């Protein structure tokens, strides 16, 4: 056996402070420890993020350790990263979940200011490898200063290849015409100098992270993104290694959510096969009231049954029109209540906290998944073999939506700029995907892709494991 597979290997993971990112990193950590029995993962994040990670670890042995103590030899350890105190950003908001958009820059600055704390963690843990996220190039810098290799782990490749192309080849057309991005396809579509400067700053941070990485890991697979993976690798001049879809086990529901999950599934069990629209925009995308109004109108017009998971920020702010978000939330909840009252509970179910998304997606009574096209939602929908209704809201989501349409596994709801859609647009797309020949073709394509994903082997994780072992060995031998 290769000696590199016998010697203990310690990997430190530092995801961005979003639960979608953290869960993706956790699933990668699980798969790597299954592939390499000499590997220990040290999962580093804020205490509020680690609360949810601890709940998700199930049967794995875990421990939270203070910075002053060396990590014990467990397979996945949780290491707390405490951000500096910041006005208006208490510790329970050291995550993007339920965080209003105006606090995102404050959270980003606080995270960047934790660089020295992260450096102390590196000195304590002394990892053989750091796996870091796209918004913290300083993590790679600190690792390289200690002769520790660092690789960046991203989600979708199609959007990242577009962003890299726009940075390295400004003014040139993206070589894949089915994918496009304009100011009208970003939340910063107003075009003000502040918006554009913020957009460029974030892109430059991402590009710097990619430049500093020894190689790139992507949560993707060649059946859906082969040409984008290859082009992205060419642009960066370094290897891009896919992980495969990395779909977690359907999992158990935490005790606090069990009753609500049972109620949702009981409602779904009573509907007809392939008749229900599942509407969910993830845990960190909050739809403005005016858009919720149009979406509600569209669901009502469609005549379809639906489950709508609606979430709201924990802290309120004033909108650009001067309205308080708390007032908007009250209005939105009244809107949702009125919708269910009009259509009847037999047709509509609204959930304002949590729903068992994985279980819903694989239920035979589900007809389509109306999604904002966050990458985790896209992958989970593809894995379930369910037709997707794309209503992108921000950043990479419009390009993810274009990929869905190009693969033939979904339909995009018409928008005239992000957020500018009508109830009629929503209703037309729902009817198309549930009861038309186009919808039948999309369903077949989705089912075929889902079957392919579910039956494929985990070859990518084996290849990635070998790449990690090779990188660490080469650095240590140099």
Tag the structure with descriptive keywords.
UDP-glycosyltransferase activity, Rossmann fold, alpha/beta, transferase, globular, 8-stranded parallel β-sheet, 6-stranded parallel β-sheet, UDP_glucos_trans, 478 residues, Glyco_transf_N, 2 domains, Crocetin glucoside glucosyltransferase-like protein
Report what the structure shows.
This protein is 47% helix and 13% strand. With 478 residues, it is an alpha/beta fold. The chain folds into 2 domains: 3-244 and 457-477, Rossmann fold (3-Layer(aba) Sandwich); 256-455, 3-Layer(aba) Sandwich (Rossmann fold). The chain has an 8-stranded parallel β-sheet, with helices on both faces. The chain has a 6-stranded parallel β-sheet with strand order 11-10-9-12-13-14, with helices on both faces. Strand 10 (305-309), helix 11 and strand 11 (348-351) form a beta-alpha-beta unit. The longest helix has 20 residues, at 193-212. It starts with 8 loop residues before the first strand and ends with a helix. One of its GO terms (molecular function) is UDP-glycosyltransferase activity.
């Amino acid at each position: 056996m290769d000696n590199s597979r016998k010697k203990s290997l310690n990997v430190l993971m530092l995801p961005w402070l979003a639960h979608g990112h953290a869960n993706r990193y956790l699933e990668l950590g699980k798969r790597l420890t299954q592939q390499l029995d000499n590997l220990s993962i040290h999962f580093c994040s804020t205490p509020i993020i680690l609360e949810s990670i601890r709940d998700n670890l199930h049967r794995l042995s875990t421990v939270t350790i203070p910075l002053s103590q060396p990590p014990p030899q467990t397979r996945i350890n949780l290491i707390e990263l405490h951000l500096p105190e910041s006005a208006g950003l208490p510790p329970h908001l050291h995550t993007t979940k339920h965080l209003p958009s105006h606090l995102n820059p404050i959270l980003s600055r606080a995270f960047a200011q934790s660089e020295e704390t992260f450096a102390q963690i590196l000195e304590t843990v002394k990892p053989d490898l750091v796996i870091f996220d796209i918004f913290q190039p300083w993590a790679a810098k600190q690792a390289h200063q200690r002769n520790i290799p660092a690789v960046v782990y991203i989600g979708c490749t199609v959007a990242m290849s577009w962003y890299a192309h726009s940075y390295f080849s400004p003014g040139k057309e993206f070589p894949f015409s089915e994918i496009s991005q304009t100011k009208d396809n970003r939340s910063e579509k107003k075009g003000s100098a502040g918006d554009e400067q913020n957009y460029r700053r974030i892109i430059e941070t991402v590009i710097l992270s990619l430049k500093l990485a020894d190689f790139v890991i992507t949560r993707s697979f060649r059946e859906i993104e082969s040409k984008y993976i290859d082009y992205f690798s060419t642009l960066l001049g370094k290897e891009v290694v896919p992980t495969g879809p990395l779909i977690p086990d359907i999992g158990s529901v935490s005790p606090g959510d069990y009753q609500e999950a049972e109620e949702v599934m009981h409602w779904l069990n009573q509907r007809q096969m392939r008749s229900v629209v599942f509407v969910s925009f993830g845990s960190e995308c909050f739809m403005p009231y005016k858009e919720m109004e149009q979406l509600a109108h569209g669901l009502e017009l469609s005549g379809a049954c639906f489950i709508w998971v609606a979430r709201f920020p924990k802290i309120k702010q004033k909108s650009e029109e001067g309205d308080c978000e708390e007032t908007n939330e009250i209005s939105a909840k009244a809107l949702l209540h009125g919708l269910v009252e009009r259509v009847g509970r037999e047709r509509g179910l609204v959930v304002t906290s949590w729903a068992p998304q994985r279980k819903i997606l694989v239920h035979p009574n589900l007809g389509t998944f109306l999604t904002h096209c966050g990458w985790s939602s896209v992958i989970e929908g593809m894995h379930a073999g369910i037709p997707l209704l794309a209503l992108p809201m921000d950043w990479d989501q419009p390009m993810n939506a274009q990929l869905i349409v190009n693969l033939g596994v979904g339909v995009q709801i018409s928008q005239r700029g992000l957020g500018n859609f009508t109830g009629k647009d929503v209703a037309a797309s729902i009817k198309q995907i549930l009861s038309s020949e186009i919808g039948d073709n999309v369903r077949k394509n989705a089912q075929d892709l889902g079957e392919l994903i579910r039956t494929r082997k985990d070859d990518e994780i084996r290849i990635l494991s070998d790449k990690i072992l090779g990188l660490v060995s080469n650095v240590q031998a140099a």
